[in-house]
Amino acid sequence: MTLPAARPGASPLAPAWLRVPEDPNALAAGVWSRNAVRAASGELELAGVPASALAAEFGTPLYVVDEADVRARAAETRAAFDAAMRGIGTTARVYYAGKAFLCTEVVRWIAEAGLGIDVASEGELAVALAGGADPARIGVHGNNKSGRQIARAVEAGVGAIVIDSAIEVERVAAAAARAGRVQPVRLRINSGVHASTHEYLATAREDQKFGVATTDAPGIVAAIRALPGLAFLGLHSHIGSQIFETQGFAEAARRLLALHARLLADGPVPELNLGGGFGIAYTVADDPMPISAIAEGMAAALAEAAADLGVALPAIAVEPGRSIVGPAGTTLYTVGTVKPVTVAVPDGAAADEAATAVRKYVSVDGGMSDNVRPALYGADYSARIASRASGDHPALARVVGMHCESGDVVARDEYLPMDVGPGDLLAVPATGAYGWAMASNYNWVPRPPVVAVRDGAARIIVRGETIDDLLARDPGVRP
Ligand code: LLP
């Protein structure tokens, strides 16, 4: 038996979470950047710039960042945590986790919104400084920071270095002594709380590389306090990414505050950093909490734990990355080929008469080199035709890239208009975090540029690479 190749209605190949859209041109609420609209012409417009104009000027694939959206999310995050922590009698500091996407322009947007920046490598530190970030508002992470990274951070006068192992205490102290500075430090704790998208686990100690065990922390803090070149700021915990509920944060807050209370016996502990990880919507299946609800949930857990322990609340810090830049990014691609592939329906009819259905493979001019998340994490994304509105019915599609690998998926399951075809521009929303940041040159594919759009204008904020740029790194190229 063969099911109709293309028909309105749910495909038996579609996952349960994927709804058949009423209109396969519609931009699902909450998934697209705030200034994305389908214009009267039928085209997708990003902050007033038509997709076709972006593609004509900058080519595809192209990362497009909605500047006003990033700025607004940064400001809203700060306002939400300020309000929530004020409500429990303390203060909040928000750091933007630069690993999600960093360039000097983003550094400026973040600084203007009043956030600090978190860096996780020597390169990220260099970008933050090159973008004019106030060193006092930079936090430095890493489970294996290089000597040079530590030295540069100390010399620059960063506000905090997050110590991740006992070995690092001496290293940071030595760098501080060489620079003649007192370096403020946090200590990262492996709290045993791990939250992922829809669940959280709490164990004595999570089986991963970051942080130190709760039981080891008092000894390490004593060592920090004994060194005149170090100033102990407090504890740090980051429990995971793309988290949708406050349970995990609440558990981490309770555990960290209990340890914090013990450390108060021997000296001041001015702050507590609870990390980032706030989830965003990649598809209609994701339902992230508003940032104010996350902040309120964290504040409630902190207030309760502080009351139970009988301690005053320290200043609270958080460091989200994805929730600030992720939803503001859109990637534009050009469709090259389309191919109907007949597939057996899982759990279909009797084995001797297996049901089949058609999945439309839509190949675009980028893929796992500009967004590795589907291949690396099995992450789901959405897609829409950007260059026009179609009057055709929705059909189940799989948007795939141009790389030599079957796992090279851009949007695993999505309904696109049946007539999607070569030359159409395709837009993938929510690519602002960990897209460009994790891009590669797989198959010698140059990394695309990043363009910021705002009020009808577009400008490059990270130049794209050319094949000549890549060849320039190969010393064997013949003239
Ligand atoms: N703080 C620390 C210490 C972190 O390790 C991270 C993320 C963050 C903050 C920011 O987390 P966010 O708010 O962006 O979720 N590449 C993965 C995510 C790995 C994140 C690693 N650390 C992805 O594409 O989903």
The CATH homologous superfamily of the largest domain is termed Alanine racemase
The tally of strands reads 23
Number of domains: 2
Distance between the first and last residues' Cα? 59 Å
Please report the first level of CATH classification, the CATH class of the largest domain.
Answer: Alpha Beta
The proportion of residues forming helix, as a percent range, comes to 25-40%
Low-confidence stretches: 1-7
Short description:
It contains twelve helices and 23 strands. It is α/β, with parallel strands linked by helices and 479 residues long. It has two domains: 178 residues, Lyase, Ornithine Decarboxylase, Chain A, domain 1, CATH 2.40.37; 208 residues, Alpha-Beta Barrel (TIM Barrel), CATH 3.20.20.10.
Give the secondary structure arrangement, pairings included.
Blueprint: E1 36-38, E2 44-46, E3 49-50, H1 51-58, E4 62-66, H2 67-87, E5 92-97, H3 104-112, E6 116-119, H4 122-130, E7 138-140, H5 147-156, E8 160-163, H6 166-179, E9 183-190, E10 193-196, E11 199-202, E12 212-213, H7 217-226, E13 230-236, H8 247-263, E14 271-273, H9 291-309, E15 315-318, H10 322-325, E16 329-344, E17 356-364, H11 373-377, E18 384-385, E19 394-400, E20 409-417, E21 425-429, E22 450-454, E23 457-462, H12 467-471
Parallel strand pairs: 4-22, 5-6, 5-15, 6-7, 7-8, 8-9, 9-12, 9-13, 13-14, 14-15, 17-19
Antiparallel strand pairs: 1-2, 2-3, 4-16, 10-11, 16-17, 16-21, 18-21, 19-20, 22-23
List keywords for this structure.
eight-stranded parallel beta barrel, TIM Barrel, Lyase, Ornithine Decarboxylase, Chain A, domain 1, alpha/beta, disordered N terminus, 479 residues, 2 domains, binds ligand LLP, nine-stranded mixed β-sheet
